């Protein structure tokens, strides 16, 4: 996994138009409440007893600090957090589910939700936990067959990072807004600003589908139908999007064999002055660039074809079936689902709030670059919430690599992916 997709595991989505909302199968405003009504109500009073919580990566390391407030409010509860490496997390979860040893509460990657629901591993969200203030696409990521399971914990989306100073050197003073403009800026970086490559893009390999899907969505395409019961890889919008992505490699604008994706050093040196990534890269490039570097680069929303679209990532919180302390588990989730706690978490981790009210806090809103991410969240989309998506995505990644590195025709790549996906099925 390269540096730009190191949070590939977390998935999600938001829609910009009613048509896109339908294509993602998003429930309407009344659906989530009704879907959650079957969950048993919570018992009043503070949480008690003990809880086990699994969280991945940096979140697993930082979560104990965040939970101090919950334990102060609920002095008779004990929470044990187990950090789990992302590389082994999926297998650890499935083994624990099979053995009946899953934790009470856990951070769950969005692309795993449908799979875990299919294993009867997650509880539906009780009605006491409001879901109306979450970004709509974030709710998509926890909704399976019309029922809401868990809550979105934090969100992130991908935007375009670019060197403003080098763009000005190349004669471009405003960021592009469409596909043609993005390619023109990348070429201008090479021709007029001494860049080795105009933009960093992933030429296939694990997680490369995430780089391509925003272009497919932008062009009005998708890879599943409205009901998420049939695959739709073969389509004119998808082929056009993949051909456009391929052009960056055939025209030698993007490196077809990067050592490890783009590095912070490439961006700071100007050898690769543009890439697509999430908010975590801001601190990385600014730390390496030193004083004043924050003024040398900017971010802008994904350029549009029919619309601007991006991949919305993040992670969810779920309560597992079989927990022996259900009320305390949901009360912990409820605590983490308040705007003030999400803002506190942003301060600890820079993970962006999944609640829209969290963005009203000046700690989040004061940075103009974060405002670009906020704007993109309104037009970001989710990967398919189907139980087999991890398997299908691996097949798609392999075909994207054939297109980018070996010149395979986009139509042929999509036909192969369609056939392989149909062989795997949706898991319904």
TrEMBL record:
Superkingdom of the source species: Bacteria
SUPFAM superfamilies: Periplasmic binding protein-like II
Family: Belongs to the bacterial solute-binding protein 1 family.
Record flagged with keyword Magnesium: no
UniProt cross-references to CDD domains, sorted A to Z: PBP2_MalE
Gene3D superfamilies from the UniProt entry: Periplasmic binding protein-like II (3.40.190.10)
Organism the protein comes from: Brachybacterium rhamnosum
Protein's UniProt name: Sugar ABC transporter substrate-binding protein
Signal peptide per UniProt: none
């Amino acid at each position: 996994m390269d540096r730009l997709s190191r949070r590939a595991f977390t998935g999600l989505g938001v829609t910009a138009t009613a048509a896109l909302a339908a294509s993602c199968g998003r429930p309407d405003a009344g659906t989530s409440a009704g879907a959650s009504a079957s969950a048993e109500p919570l018992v009043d009073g503070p949480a008690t007893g003990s809880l086990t919580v699994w969280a991945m990566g940096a979140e697993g390391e930082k979560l104990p600090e965040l939970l101090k407030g919950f334990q102060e409010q609920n002095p008779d509860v004990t929470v044990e957090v187990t950090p789990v490496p992302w590389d082994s997390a999926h297998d650890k979860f499935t083994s624990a589910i099979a053995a009946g040893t899953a934790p009470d509460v856990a951070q769950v990657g969005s692309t795993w939700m449908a799979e875990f629901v299919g294993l009867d591993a997650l509880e539906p969200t009780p009605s006491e936990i409001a879901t109306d203030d979450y970004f709509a696409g974030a709710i998509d990521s926890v909704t399976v067959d019309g029922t809401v399971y868990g809550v979105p914990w934090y969100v992130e989306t991908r935007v375009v990072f670019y060197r403003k100073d080098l763009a000005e050197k190349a004669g471009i003073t405003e960021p592009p807004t469409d596909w043609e403009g993005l390619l023109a800026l990348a070429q201008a970086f090479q021709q007029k600003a001494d860049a080795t490559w105009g933009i960093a893009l992933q030429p296939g390999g694990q997680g490369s589908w995430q780089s391509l899907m925003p272009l497919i969505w932008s062009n009005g395409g998708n890879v599943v139908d409205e009901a998420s019961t049939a695959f739709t890889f073969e389509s004119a919008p998808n082929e056009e999007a993949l051909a456009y992505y391929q052009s960056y490699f055939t025209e030698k604008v993007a490196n077809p064999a990067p050592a490890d994706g783009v590095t912070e050093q490439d961006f700071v040196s100007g050898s690769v002055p543009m890439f697509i990534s999430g908010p975590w890269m801001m601190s990385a490039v600014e730390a390496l660039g030193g004083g004043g570097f924050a003024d040398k680069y900017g971010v802008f929303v994904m350029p549009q074809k029919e619309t601007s679209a991006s991949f919305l990532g993040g992670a969810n919180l779920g309560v597992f079936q079989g927990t022996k302390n259900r009320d305390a588990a949901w009360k912990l989730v409820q605590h983490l689902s308040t705007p003030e706690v999400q803002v506190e978490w942003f301060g600890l981790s820079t993970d962006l709030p999944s609640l829209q009210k969290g963005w009203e806090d000046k700690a989040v809103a004061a940075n103009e670059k974060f405002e670009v991410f906020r704007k993109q969240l309104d037009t970001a989309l989710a990967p398919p919430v189907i139980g087999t998506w991890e398997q299908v995505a691996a097949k798609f990644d392999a075909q994207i690599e054939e297109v980018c590195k070996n010149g395979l025709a986009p139509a042929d790549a999509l036909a192969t992916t369609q056939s392989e996906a149909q062989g795997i099925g949706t898991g319904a």
